[in-house]
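SEVERITY: medium
COMPONENT: batch folding queue
REPORTER: lab tech (J.R.)

DESCRIPTION
The queue accepted two submissions in a row. Attaching both inputs and their returned structure tokens so the on-call engineer can compare them side by side.

ATTACHMENT 1
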Amino acid sequence: MAPRQIIVYISFVIYEGMTALDFVGIYDPLTRLHSMGCLSGVQWDVCARTAQVRDHSGLVFTSTRVGAPLEGYDMVVVPGGFSSRTLIHDTAFIDWLKTAEPCPLKVSVCTGALLLGAAGFLTHKPATTHPSAYALLAPYCAQVVTDQRVVDADHVITARGVTASIDLGLYLCEKLAGRATRERIQQQMDYSGSV
């Protein structure tokens, strides 16, 4: 079957102290849209304010785009991590994240929702995050959703704790390329969870 010709340009935001699985769990299924030949137009950058970042345990990630504004992407993906709780007060980081305002879809995993909230993207929207951060999320959104792994609020989609990153990645695969594609990718990943 020939891949569908849809252009999707994704920014995966990374930062010091993030949780690696928050990033990798969504990165893997979304990039399989390209590597498995499902959508030929999927492209992505790994974006950061520095050339390299370390997750909370010291694992090093290298960015492919450093310090550039986040406008121009179709989707911006923000992982969570313990450092997100302090980054919400980092004006330079939040101002950089705000450059994603024109992007049609903003997505977060776990406490990445706090960063979307601090950037003003959750105003009047329901959202979710890691259960330990519900109280921190509440001031940023219309409603904290506690009973769903993925909350789709039109142009902003949030997911709960760390492993929800995989569910979110597969949810987005279906949103972009249909249920059959999602099931194909899920089978290839040998993942039995579901949203």
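ATTACHMENT 2
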Amino acid sequence: MPKCQSCGAELPEGTFVCQKCGSAVELPPPPPPKEGAISRERRERYEKEKAEKEKAEKREKEEKHEDRFGAVIGGLILILLGTIMYLAQNRVIPWRNFGGYFLLGMGLILIIWAAARYFSEAFKGTALGLLIGGLILGALGLSTLLELRESWPLVLIMLGLIIIVGIAAAVRRSPRPR
């Protein structure tokens, strides 16, 4: 049984104050942990913190790239609108074709954006949705300009089939996760 440092009275386990003299009881220091456990815990904590820091840096880098691409796309859309309006006002193109030219231009912008994302290190391989959207808008614009008003649904069906066949081929080439 431990003894009080002040008066020497025996102290029951778990007491923090001596019942005889009222002085605070000093607790013995905890036993030292095993040597291997400290280094392993420190190493695991260090690796976890390092991984979290790398993830945060990667997210920050992607956000910066996304902001840059978004500003460029916004500028391209304004240039497209201004160019089409200028050409229509100067009677180079008829106003009735404004929508067709705009859809075709937007399709091209999305395809350019998809190419920029695909060849960018931060967004490697995340351009399929932009490419599909660009192809659809471009096909709609082109069908409007070529006055294929009744056949544009067929263009969409053809694009859908091309996409499905392309995805099916990609799935066959890639290994399945286990």
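NOTES FROM REPORTER
The CA atoms of residues 32 and 38 lie 10 Å apart.
No errors were logged for either attachment.
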